[in-house]
Amino acid sequence: MGLRSAAEYKAGLDDGRVIYYRGEQIGHVAEHDDLGIAVSHVALDFDLAEDPAHQELFAWEDEASGELCSRYFKSPTGTEDLLKRREMIEVSTRLGSAVVLLIKEIGTDALFALDLVSRVVDEKAGTQYHSRVKAFHDYCKKEDRSLAVAQTDVKGDRSLLPSEQEHPDYYVHIVEERDDGIVVRGAKAHTTCAPYVDELIVLPTRAIKEEDASYAVSFAVPVNTPGVKLIASPFGSPPANEFHHPVSSKHRMIDTLTIFDDVFVPNERVFLKGEWLAAGYLANTFVEFHRFTAASYKPPLCDMFIGAAALLAEYNGIEKASHVREKITKLITYTETVRGLTRAAAFDCRVTDFGLAVPNIVLTNLAKYHFANNYHQAVAWVQDIAGGLVVTGPDELDVLSEETGPYIKHFLGGKQGIPTEDRLRAFNLVRDLTASTFGGYNELLAIHAEGSLETQKITILRDYDVERCKDLAREAIGVK
Amino acid sequence: MGLRSAAEYKAGLDDGRVIYYRGEQIGHVAEHDDLGIAVSHVALDFDLAEDPAHQELFAWEDEASGELCSRYFKSPTGTEDLLKRREMIEVSTRLGSAVVLLIKEIGTDALFALDLVSRVVDEKAGTQYHSRVKAFHDYCKKEDRSLAVAQTDVKGDRSLLPSEQEHPDYYVHIVEERDDGIVVRGAKAHTTCAPYVDELIVLPTRAIKEEDASYAVSFAVPVNTPGVKLIASPFGSPPANEFHHPVSSKHRMIDTLTIFDDVFVPNERVFLKGEWLAAGYLANTFVEFHRFTAASYKPPLCDMFIGAAALLAEYNGIEKASHVREKITKLITYTETVRGLTRAAAFDCRVTDFGLAVPNIVLTNLAKYHFANNYHQAVAWVQDIAGGLVVTGPDELDVLSEETGPYIKHFLGGKQGIPTEDRLRAFNLVRDLTASTFGGYNELLAIHAEGSLETQKITILRDYDVERCKDLAREAIGVK
Amino acid sequence: MGLRSAAEYKAGLDDGRVIYYRGEQIGHVAEHDDLGIAVSHVALDFDLAEDPAHQELFAWEDEASGELCSRYFKSPTGTEDLLKRREMIEVSTRLGSAVVLLIKEIGTDALFALDLVSRVVDEKAGTQYHSRVKAFHDYCKKEDRSLAVAQTDVKGDRSLLPSEQEHPDYYVHIVEERDDGIVVRGAKAHTTCAPYVDELIVLPTRAIKEEDASYAVSFAVPVNTPGVKLIASPFGSPPANEFHHPVSSKHRMIDTLTIFDDVFVPNERVFLKGEWLAAGYLANTFVEFHRFTAASYKPPLCDMFIGAAALLAEYNGIEKASHVREKITKLITYTETVRGLTRAAAFDCRVTDFGLAVPNIVLTNLAKYHFANNYHQAVAWVQDIAGGLVVTGPDELDVLSEETGPYIKHFLGGKQGIPTEDRLRAFNLVRDLTASTFGGYNELLAIHAEGSLETQKITILRDYDVERCKDLAREAIGVK
Amino acid sequence: MGLRSAAEYKAGLDDGRVIYYRGEQIGHVAEHDDLGIAVSHVALDFDLAEDPAHQELFAWEDEASGELCSRYFKSPTGTEDLLKRREMIEVSTRLGSAVVLLIKEIGTDALFALDLVSRVVDEKAGTQYHSRVKAFHDYCKKEDRSLAVAQTDVKGDRSLLPSEQEHPDYYVHIVEERDDGIVVRGAKAHTTCAPYVDELIVLPTRAIKEEDASYAVSFAVPVNTPGVKLIASPFGSPPANEFHHPVSSKHRMIDTLTIFDDVFVPNERVFLKGEWLAAGYLANTFVEFHRFTAASYKPPLCDMFIGAAALLAEYNGIEKASHVREKITKLITYTETVRGLTRAAAFDCRVTDFGLAVPNIVLTNLAKYHFANNYHQAVAWVQDIAGGLVVTGPDELDVLSEETGPYIKHFLGGKQGIPTEDRLRAFNLVRDLTASTFGGYNELLAIHAEGSLETQKITILRDYDVERCKDLAREAIGVK
């Protein structure tokens, strides 16, 4: 098959999966009032691969099968592949009004990481994981499967190891080994897109010690597998009012608490089973691919910030003020540093012995770190330029009302020639992006998605060659 | 009378005032579903003045009348008065769960400014404003009136003067002078608390040139004056769910677009009428008192940030992590710098010839600037410590559900001994304060309320004695 | 006596003390080419106390003796004393061209700390230290003695305790106890002003464990005591050229490595001898007074930065550029935050049971922290405004040369009417303060003097009432 | 010829050029005590091109002549050339102990800019500049000439245009046009390396208006041309003591005030003569190449900062402290952001119609801006980790002295096993790099070399496609 249509994708979601939302189990997710918005949003992924204007970027002819497939499934072999991958992510996010799709991006990050790690585990431990990973990868590619990754365990007390916790289920673990597979129990937090993808890939969240070997587990299951239960979070989902929420009324991302209530996973879908030494390696390898994805989808939102600020500066008549120019320059500096470092990470990728290209780790983490560490400041610059009316302006119903509408039109105009309503819509854009439940979601996402700031700092310090720098200092002072 | 009860205050609001909210004119504001929450919130002001535990701070015996009055009406004569005023504001805000009341704070800031400026105008222009101001001040004090201040004009194109605008109504102006008063037209943006105060004080928003003399106008009117129409903003008002919104479900602030549709103001309530040279002076003088108020009500929210972060650090088991300690230290640095500089502004106040104490201008602006310039960073620190579950956690209905509740309880626990629900409530607190429509409102408020960052920078540069510093440099290099 | 003259002070330094400088032992320090500059600089202290224009601030009539004494020796009993102390320090530093004097400031900080701590130790351990401290304080006051404090031990490997080090002498310790006194050995780093004060007060640098009790030692000795040897650091001391170094050619501070080569200290000068539990308390108590001193002497340098930047902006013709105004505003914000918080620390002091006023610890540390944490940024703003000629301009000899002088005068002019030489002198001022060996000294001083940034952060976290904040959060979410 | 030896280069400098230093005209610059250090430093350029270990990078076979030439003269035609150029600059700077050489880097930046601009001017104005530029480029390449660029005029009052100044000579201008050439007058500030290069290239410093056409001038002259007079700045040149100044005693950069006292330039060396419309274009085009050079030579100093900080952390026993790890991580973030963005600028270069590759302007400016905007903070981190002994430690003569040496060795040790002298040398490295006259030079250089921070901000705002971003915002709110 290779490429599915958006309609096929949506139809496939009606498979009996168990999703809870606001206290109730829901039916076909694509038809749900709130969650359906997210489904429509991500369906763009399938449309783009078929759209003549975008197919060259989003689709790819698999040499093995000769089929046209989603390019996400192409394992990167060098800079060009990584740049195209970055471009796909940036373009689709931009077309999604700055909200990333993520139904294949993260999943393939996991597939690439599993590809690398399974080879090593097989070699060290005599296992046969790599062929399973390859088969699963081929299956997803051929069937154009959408994927979510469940990595972050719920963790309980974060200062304790898995087996030191109050109960054993704060990290997903193997509770039974059978001939034909394993049974797993536990829960993963904030699994993005889980309600509307086909497959869930599960990865360990941290390094594991020997006594916790049963927590060293990785596998993939269809979302409708018995025992998989999703509790979808309502946060970040404002009422679907287009005027008040020009972006989030049509574009959304949903995360779940993903429960594995004694889920059976057949052997061919198990990619790590107790090889505890490899758990941290797998967690980290995934993250390196994943942070490249992360840094790739951030610039459209930043560009939207620049645009919204510049537009309101114009509407308010302050576009020539020196402080406004200064703040817009800073927004550009912010945006283009993220984008430039991400591209640099593709340019300076490392190609492994097996031919897989890994984006430069330090540069990838820097890109993500710059984004995350300055996001709230960027929000402040946009809000500063936009002005207080962002949160003290009228409701859409006041605008429509015959009594109050004329007052609003008369009094809330800005620069001559700009309709008052356009100006109000621009305020609404800033509020939707930065000062609403969706804006709050974006703030948390900036800091915590793809690992918190601290994890990026740890990686940067670990991967930079500090000894080389110490040698420079020693040489300068004549010390060996 | 001197002191009114909260019940008397609420009853007084049912006076035929014209308020629109979400497209409809509403009736008695105190009984309105959404706006009534704000009324209940601010009613605390009256309760405190009668509460034996707080009366010493919040009430004050007026020497002239011998009556016990709200201390807000006491004109400050020195450091002690300013410190008590600061303390009143901080205490009432803290008791209001970090949401300031503002139904007398800003109004009395305006009364103090009018006191100062009217004396000067009377002297220069031979007018009789000061006695009117005094009479109005006495009336408010005696009747325990609540007050809002409408200052910021809607402004249209901000690069143009009032008379250069597309139409003449972007700034409130006098359209008719009668023997017994004036008629005014125009609109003011974001008038805080307007729907639920007794009186509106109107001040000019900027310096005025001679050709714009009709825009140099200041006055006070009861909110139910014919022609006054309020369009209340719905933003910052989330659904009143206590679990999801522990603070904002009970504590709110409402702003309005305040329309003056040919409103008649009798002479005794007019405080400036065309004396254009005084408009900027009045605007600035008000702002200096008002920024002291502003800097006084910020610390409780900052303390709440510290507390929420520290509590979640404990619940998550990370309170000893060095980066957590670092971030909490930075939150303290942020908070106490604001508080310390505000207190310093009271200590270093200037007492005018007429005996009124004005807080130190540079220190006041520094306090406000530190708060505003670092607010978003503070939000980031809190969100960083709290974790991603702030926006990916479950709905209250999921917690209550028999199907999902047990999963949530089991999997979303943190440190041993802390009930899961407490941890969820703490996440909700962080989301309510920082990552919701209310959180967004707080962000905009931080930057724009009481003047934007740029206005504080201008004031700081203008009021610091740079020439003295240049003399130090000249002296050091032997140049005269 | 009470007050000595500058001449008496200088004469008293010729007492056989052992000072090494650039590899040689020097004679009378007041007559030394380099160190003599520092002596002349600090002699200002004695001049001010006798100068009618300054005596009211710098001198004080001791009620006990009726003598006029240096106000530094007055133990603060409340806000007014602390404010006067702060003012003395700021004024004398300003008159010293932004270089602090420090020959009594730090010493009296130590006396105040010893006063507090010795009372507690006497009470707990039955010792008699307080009377010794008082006698020494009285002696210093009466004889107008100048004082240095040697606190920071050389420390060796900072991750090890005193007794874990490679040799026992990395911290000053007692090597012999005699009936009439003790013998101490060790060395203290960066003892400011040691070569030109009368007395050295020694304090422990950290908390001490029981096994290290011999390191818990405090005492005072005259600088010429046998075994005391000072190795004066040459850094921060540029050639004494007034044109190139308008400030540092006349104003300097000298630090020493202070060696205690088996120094005998008579009992009456011993203030702690093995009471290990009190070592950390003494170290910290001193630091709290000392950081108040620190924060008090910083503003004059900051004001000089503002002045130098504003002067060069004028000379270069850029004083109206928006970025220049922005940077000067930031310099003011920096300066006045430090000054305001220091004053606030005096206002909010704590008066102990014994009547001694201790500046507010959190505010004092905030003031110091703000200074230290932003100093390099302040330097950058000044250098940015000043321009590259600060380090690419001509030598004084080029200016004086008949061949090159006219070229320089012609080409290096700035704003019309400003002599070229004045402009060059202004560049030299910026270079001297920020981009010279003296400027480098100032940078290190900003970070490390009076404890590094990290120590201030630890103190702020320790002394702020975080539990109170957690209660606010708990209350908001209804958790006990 | 193609490649000269270092000896040939040095011999060539003895050509009668006029250099003043500290008030005196000097003779052969290569043999001068102070300036000779800079000559030895830059001679490395010639050594590297002949060194088998480096020749592949530093030399290049010119296809036209078949000669091996310095690679600096190769006009970049794509990413690979730019990356090699960046690599040459980084490697030679690293081998020069973090001090850049700059005797061909800037000069060829100017040649590339002249190549581009002369083509356009010839086309628009019918001039013949391009052939002259090409001939000069070929000559320099063939003769392996070293080059300096004199761009920044002395400017006088910066708020005035050239012809508005107090005298006409604040910008270099044409005072006479002859058949065979032009006569120029004026002076350029901070011309780096001028005393020890063969040729001076002169470029305009800003856009020029029609009335100032005589200021639109560009040309090249040998340094020994009559009328060219250099006043070398002594700043940044500490005494040549290797112990105290491990880097700057051997590696230096010298800037001059470069005077053109009616200098005749023959026609074939004139590249712009009154075509005022092109002046700004030439100034900007040069700067774009030049900032790429700038951003290329910064990382070795940053790496040296990382190394010095990490080394002292180890010597002091604090390498595992969390704040130390945090600061080293920030230093890495700083360094690698600059390097990554510079490489990205090469990757994303623009190839002109004529085949010349121009590094991406926004990314180049971002790289330079990040370096400059955070340099002082980086200095602070290094000094923070190093400790106060950087400026309070002993002189070399104290270390060598028999009296004091043993004390120093005993007391100033750090981590066991590290010789005290090594630790002192490490302190000296930090002081030399950051807290000395050389350190001050580095600070000013960071901000002002290659254009100040403000110029980078202007370029970033001008070159980013803000309209594209506004379109995104308009699209999101449905506004055309």
Describe the protein's topology.
The structure is a homotetramer of 480-residue chains.
Chain A (H helix, E strand, L loop, with lengths): L5 H7 L5 E4 L2 E2 L9 H16 L4 H4 E3 L6 E3 L8 H17 L9 H21 L3 H15 L3 E4 L22 E6 L2 E12 L6 E4 L14 E6 L5 E5 L22 E12 L3 E4 L5 H19 L1 H18 L5 H26 L2 E2 L5 E2 L2 H26 L2 H4 L3 H5 L4 H7 L8 H15 L2 H12 L4 H11 L2 H11 L4
Task: Please describe what this structure looks like.
- The structure is a homotetramer of 480-residue chains.
- Chain A has 480 residues and is α+β, with helices and mostly antiparallel strands.
- The model of chain A has no long low-confidence stretch (mean pLDDT 97).
- The termini of chain A are far apart.
- The radius of gyration of chain A is 24 Å and the shape is globular.
- In chain A, helix 4 packs across helix 7, helix 8 packs antiparallel against helix 9 and helix 10 runs antiparallel to helix 15.
- At the A-D interface, helix 8, helix 9, helix 10, helix 14 and helix 16 of A face helix 8, helix 9, helix 10, helix 14 and helix 16 of D.
Give structural attributes.
homotetramer; about 475 residues; alpha+beta; 6-stranded mixed beta sheet; 17 helices; about 15% strand
What level of helicity do the residues of chain A show? 40-55%
Radius of gyration of chain A: 24 Å
Largest sheet of chain A: 6 strands, mixed
Can you tell me the overall shape of chain A? globular
End-to-end distance of chain A, in Å?
63 Å
Strand residue percentage of chain A: 5-15%
- DSSP helical segment count of chain A: 17
Mean pLDDT of chain A: 97
